[in-house]
């Protein structure tokens, strides 16, 4: 448990800063500012110095490549597949000679030093990414900025962070979300990460989730409100950063941390019940195989949603059947008999994944995405994934989950492909789970209205409330101008949730309906959902104890 003593700061009063959660969890520590002031030399060179300056830049690039190779090797030796993939994508960027040629050309044509030309071209590229519509591509600006800073460091001969090493009591604060800083945080056992950046789909954000580092983004005026060494509490569950916490606030959060540690001491599933004793099924949402360990650590009953699209290496193609098989089998084995719902790739809309076959259009969220991509554009991609899942699920409690279903016809088309895949595996003599349950995600109002018809064709349904809410309210959840419309307590949306469960009850299938998405961690929504009759939830593992506590307070009559 961390003890914090007050240090002189610009404001000694408790200050609460609001942002958006990237990775849940609570951290109590001290601020460590990671944004060092970078001074860009504007040194002019004469024609006789051009070749040597270009050589100096090329040597910096080679040094950066060597540094990245070491990072990739260290990730190969561990279990952090996402970090390995992200640094491999950085290697690909560094290997792009077209950018380096622009820098070398700038040195020659403008007669300026390598630092100046590197910064000029990097800023141009960052601006281009920043103007892209796709949030995924837009967030790549953070990767370019990160790589440019690394190159500037090698040009100066001073590695980033050498002046102020990270301590194990540090909560890092930055205007940006850079993968290299996240890796440094992880390697130094830093406690948390807070940022002003809105790049919540960036590589750094993915790494923070993969490493389980409590983190918050989109904190306005963060840098202006904190100082180096300031005592702070990072509440990744609520998306809140508390600077200079009062003695009472500190005591309350220390109690929460202690209670969570005690709750998470047992790897066996922990019961979740309402105050009146009704059982609640509580499973985990995960995005990579490593997070299956969080499901065990927090005593959850299985995995309600495995978002497999995050296995796709940004900028590359979909993993091969064998690569997918190993990832799925790892999760199934970690679950050790507990239920695992594996969702097929949900690509499109805000999740383009940098693939060469993007799902574009004037409004990508209303175009080719989810199961539409597989049925209309790339059925072979679905066949390969189904083969990998079926094989990995052999002798286990595993189910298939289909995303973004709009009509019952899509279910029948998916079933036909599933039948064909099973026949092929059977012919090959492969071992696989023949009787695998099939479920669908209800994320579109049309599917919600057709709940009874859809349930008659599948074994279960999961309500993807993040997309369901934005489609129902016609308000992009990533658009800050209309984000207030995405209010789950809107009476019309509450009616829709009640309608879905009522339709399931008419055929005695209410137990085959689960809630996943952000409303399952919304303290205002949980009591409402319980009163409606929802009894199955899939949540971020780290909020499990908070969820159980809220359930226990509800005496449902």
Characteristics:
557 residues; alpha/beta; Glucose Oxidase, domain 1; Enzyme I, Chain A, domain 2; TIM Barrel; 3 domains; eight-stranded mixed sheet; eight-stranded parallel β-barrel; 16 strands; 14% strand
Fold and architecture overview:
The structure is a single chain. The protein is an alpha/beta fold and 557 residues long. Helix content is 44%, strand content 14%. It has 21 helices and 16 strands. The strands form 2 sheets. It has an 8-stranded mixed sheet with strand order 1-8-7-3-4-5-6-2. An 8-stranded parallel barrel has the order 9-10-11-12-13-14-15-16. α14 (379-392) packs across α15 (408-428). The chain is globular. Mean pLDDT is 85; it is low at 5-9 and 350-354.
Number of helices: 21
Q: What is the residue-averaged pLDDT?
A: 85
**Which shape, going by the Cα principal axes?**
globular
Structural class: alpha/beta
Name the helicity range. Answer: 40-55%
Please tell me the total number of domains. 3
Radius of gyration: 25 Å
Q: Give the uncertain stretches in residue-range form.
A: 5-9, 350-354
* Second CATH tier, the architecture of the largest domain: Alpha-Beta Barrel
Q: What's the level 1 CATH class of the largest domain?
A: Alpha Beta
CATH superfamily of the largest domain, by name, is Phosphoenolpyruvate-binding domains
Strand content: 5-15%
CATH topology of the largest domain: TIM Barrel
* Main sheet makeup: 8 strands, mixed
Strand order of the biggest β-sheet: 1-8-7-3-4-5-6-2
In angstroms, what separates the terminal alpha carbons? 40 Å
* Number of DSSP strand runs: 16
């Amino acid at each position: 448990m961390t003890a914090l003593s007050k240090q002189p700061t610009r404001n000694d009063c408790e200050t609460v800063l609001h942002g958006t959660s990237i990775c849940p969890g609570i951290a109590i520590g001290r601020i460590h500012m990671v944004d060092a002031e970078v001074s860009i030399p504007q040194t002019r060179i004469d024609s006789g110095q051009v070749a040597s300056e270009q050589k100096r830049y090329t040597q910096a690039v080679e040094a950066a490549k060597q540094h990245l190779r070491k990072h990739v090797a260290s990730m190969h030796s561990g279990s952090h597949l996402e970090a390995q993939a992200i640094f491999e994508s950085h290697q690909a960027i560094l290997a792009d000679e077209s950018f380096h040629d622009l820098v070398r050309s700038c040195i020659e044509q403008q007669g300026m030093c390598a630092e100046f030309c590197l910064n000029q071209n990097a800023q141009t590229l960052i601006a281009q990414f920043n103007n892209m519509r796709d949030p995924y591509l837009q967030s790549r600006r953070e990767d370019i900025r990160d790589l440019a800073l690394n190159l500037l460091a090698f040009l100066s001969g001073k590695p980033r962070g050498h002046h102020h090493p990270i301590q194990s009591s540090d909560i890092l604060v930055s205007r940006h979300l850079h993968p290299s800083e996240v890796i440094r945080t992880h390697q130094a056992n830093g406690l948390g990460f807070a940022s002003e950046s809105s790049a919540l789909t960036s590589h750094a954000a993915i790494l923070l989730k993969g490493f389980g580092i409590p983190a918050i983004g989109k904190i306005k005026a963060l840098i202006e409100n904190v100082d180096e060494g300031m005592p702070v509490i990072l509440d990744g569950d609520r998306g809140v950063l508390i600077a200079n916490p009062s003695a009472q606030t500190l005591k309350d959060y220390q109690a929460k941390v202690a209670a969570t540690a005690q709750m998470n001491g047992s790897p066996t599933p922990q019961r979740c019940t309402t105050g009146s004793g009704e059982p609640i099924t509580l499973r985990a949402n995960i995005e990579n195989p490593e997070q299956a360990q969080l499901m065990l650590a927090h005593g959850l009953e299985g995995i309600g949603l495995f978002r497999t699209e995050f296995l796709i290496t940004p900028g590359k193609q979909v993993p091969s059947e064998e690569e997918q098989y190993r990832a799925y089998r790892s999760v199934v084995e970690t679950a050790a008999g507990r239920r695992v719902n594996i969702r097929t790739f949900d690509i499109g809309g805000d999740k383009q994944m940098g693939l060469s076959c993007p799902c574009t259009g004037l409004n990508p969220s209303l175009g080719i995405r989810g199961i539409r991509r597989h049925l209309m554009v790339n059925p072979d991609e679905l066949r390969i994934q189904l083969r990998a899942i079926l094989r990995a699920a052999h002798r286990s409690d595993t189910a298939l989950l289909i995303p973004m279903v709009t009509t019952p016809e899509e279910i029948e088309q998916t079933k036909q492909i599933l039948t064909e895949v099973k026949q092929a595996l059977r012919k090959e003599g492969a071992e696989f789970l023949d009787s695998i349950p099939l479920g669908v995600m209800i994320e579109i109002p049309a599917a919600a209205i057709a709940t009874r018809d859809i349930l008659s064709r599948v074994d279960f349904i999961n309500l993807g409330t993040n997309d369901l809410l934005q489609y129902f309210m016609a308000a992009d959840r990533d658009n800050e101008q209309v984000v207030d419309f995405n209010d789950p307590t809107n009476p019309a949306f509450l009616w829709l949730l009640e309608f879905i469960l009522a339709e399931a009850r008419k055929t005695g299938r209410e137990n085959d309906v689960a809630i996943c998405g952000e409303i399952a961690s919304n303290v205002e929504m949980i009591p409402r959902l319980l009163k409606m009759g929802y009894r199955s939830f899939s949540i971020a593992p780290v909020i499990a104890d908070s969820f159980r506590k809220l359930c226990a307070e509800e005496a449902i009559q």
